[in-house]
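agent> Task received from the user: take the single chain below, predict its 3D structure, and emit C-alpha cells. No templates, no multimer pairing.
agent> Plan: (1) validate residues, (2) run structure prediction, (3) serialize to C-alpha cells, (4) report one or two observations.
agent> Step 1 OK, no nonstandard residues flagged.
tool_call: predict_structure(input=
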Amino acid sequence: MTENEISKIVVDAAVKLHQELGPGLLESVYETALAYLLLKRGLSCVRQHPIPIHYDGLEFDEGFRADIVVNNLVILELKSVENISPVHRKQIQTYIRLADKKLGLLLNFGAPLMRDGIVRAVNNLPE
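)
tool_result: status=success, residues=127
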C-alpha cells in the first residue's frame, strides 16, 4: 500500500471520527479512537512512537514522539486547537524529514469541519 492510499483511508477515518465525536475533545481521545478505526480498516498503527534524531554523528534515542505512525510509512500529528498555526505546519514537515518518511498528515480535530483541519506534508513523495 502506498503513502497516498494510506492517506485516503486516514482522511476518511478522521472525517468519520470528527463527525461522530465533534470538535474540542482532548488530542489523546482522538488519537485512541483514530488508531482503533485505522486498525479496523486493516492498517498497522503505532501510537506515541519514539523517533530518534541523528545529529553531528550522534543519535538521540528519542528526538520526538510521533502521535501515530501508520504502516511505518505515514506520520500523523494530531491537534485539537481552534486554529492551526504556522509552527504546527513546520512541526509535521520537520517530523517527516527527520524520520525519513515521505508523507505526514496534520489533523486538527478542533476545526469546525475536519476538511478544514487537514494539512498534508510531503518529503520527496512522487505523484
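agent> Step 4: summary for the user.
Residues 31 and 57 are 33 Å apart (CA to CA).
agent> Done.
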